[in-house]
Design goal:
The protein is α/β, with parallel strands linked by helices and about 400 residues long. The protein has 15 helices and 14 strands. The protein has a six-stranded parallel beta sheet, sandwiched between helices. α4 links the parallel β3 and β4.
Length: about 400
């Protein structure tokens, strides 16, 4: 089978990029021919398909600003280069990922017009919310745009800017649900939560399917899953929607050691707020993450926004580390209460504090968690299902 994968970036930038790269390797390992369509970007991995990539755009003052503002609606350059790729590669399937703004859904229409099957994995809420995340001004959960996209203008949700919000509104109006459904054969939702939100936004249930993400479980395997230190950990971006402020407030009230892996805009603020029992380790590579998180008694995912199918939960469980997760988005679907972790009420400091204590008091079967997770998120299981959806 010939499969064309598309994502706005082609390097390990975020969950959508990691998924695209992993899927490309998985499909190649099974003998399929693959091609890639992304935007030109300095950090992109080398690929022979880069000659088809449209130019890089930046939504900031300077040369190319006009192209940047027109790109979300489908520019001539994107159409020309994508059509050239379709001509040369002749795919059986076009598998879309995060394509809005830098590429635009025009590529779905171009593929559909040629009779090519279009499958679209939904990594975030962009098809429902012009902001991607259902966070009004980045602070309050909001679903009003599901029914009325004009709300993004009313609340100035994009950077608190009328201009940016107007651009997002026009993009949402052009690429409305009816138009997206008409050119997409199947929307793949990595969580039941996401499928439910897509249905709530009016998308045809017959075009929605839930398929949990996969990872390379081989990188998670260890000789010993039971060697644990006397600490718990957080792995992720230090930003408001990730719940880092709530976590620090809870951690400050407890005697346990907390190790924080990652950086972000709230790093310095959180360092000033945190007590000495909180250690900030900064950005780390996978081998270091595997060692630190793998020896943690448990990992905390204190998110305060609609997480879809977070790899941080999946990876933690695959290295034998139970997860204490906020009861929000798709997180609870990944946690078996009392067996692979626990859940707490998002934003609730007291509940989080109580559950941290409960996690330390619980004897988990760390090896059992690892084995079960590695089986659940194995790439071969995913491969068999995604190929069925391609056909």
């Amino acid at each position: 089978m010939r499969i064309l994968l598309s994502n706005k970036f082609y390097y390990r930038r975020g969950g959508d990029c990691i998924y695209t790269l992993n899927l490309e390797q998985l499909l190649k390992a099974h003998g399929h021919e693959t091609a890639v369509f992304a935007m030109q970007y300095p950090d992109n991995l080398p690929t022979p398909w880069s000659k088809y990539f449209p130019s890089e755009i930046r939504f900031s003052p300077g040369p190319g600003m006009i192209e940047a503002f027109l790109r979300p609606f489908g520019t001539h350059e994107v159409k020309r280069k994508f059509n050239a790729l379709l001509d040369d590669f002749r795919p059986d399937v076009v598998h879309l990922n995060n394509i809005h703004s830098q590429l635009s859904p025009v590529i779905a229409e171009l593929a559909h017009k040629r009779g090519i099957r279009v499958v679209w994995t939904i990594h975030d809420l962009k098809l429902l919310c012009p902001r991607y995340d259902c966070m009004r001004n980045g602070k309050t959960l909001c679903e009003e745009c599901f029914a009325d996209k004009h709300k993004v203008l009313e609340y100035k949700c994009m950077k608190n800017s009328k201009a940016a919000s107007f651009l997002a509104y026009r993009e949402a109006v052009k690429w409305n649900r009816q138009r997206l459904e008409a050119c997409t054969d199947l929307f793949v939702c990595p969580s039941r939560f996401m499928e439910g939100k897509m249905a709530k936004g009016g998308f045809d249930g017959h075009k929605l399917v839930t398929l949990c993400n996969f990872i390379d479980v081989e990188k998670c395997k260890k000789e010993n899953y039971t060697e644990k230190g006397d600490y718990y950990c957080f792995l992720g971006r230090l930003s408001n929607e990730k719940g880092i402020h709530t976590l620090i407030k809870a951690a400050n009230q407890l005697p346990y050691k907390l190790k924080i892996i990652g950086g972000g805009p709230m790093e310095e603020e959180m360092k000033k707020l945190a007590n000495p029992n909180v250690e900030f380790l900064g950005f780390r590579q996978w081998d270091e993450i595997k060692e630190i998180a793998g020896r943690a008694r448990f990992s905390v995912i204190p998110s305060e926004w609609y997480e879809n199918n977070p790899l941080s939960v999946i990876e933690a469980q695959c290295i034998g580390t139970p997860v204490l997760g906020a009861r929000i988005g798709g997180i609870p679907e990944l946690i078996e209460e009392g067996t692979s972790g626990m859940c707490f009420e998002s934003k609730n400091v007291e509940d989080l504090k109580d559950k941290i204590q409960a996690m330390f008091a619980t004897d988990f079967d760390y090896e059992g968690i690892a084995r079960a997770a590695q089986k659940r998120y194995d790439s071969e299981t995913y491969y068999r299902r995604i190929v069925e959806l391609y056909k």
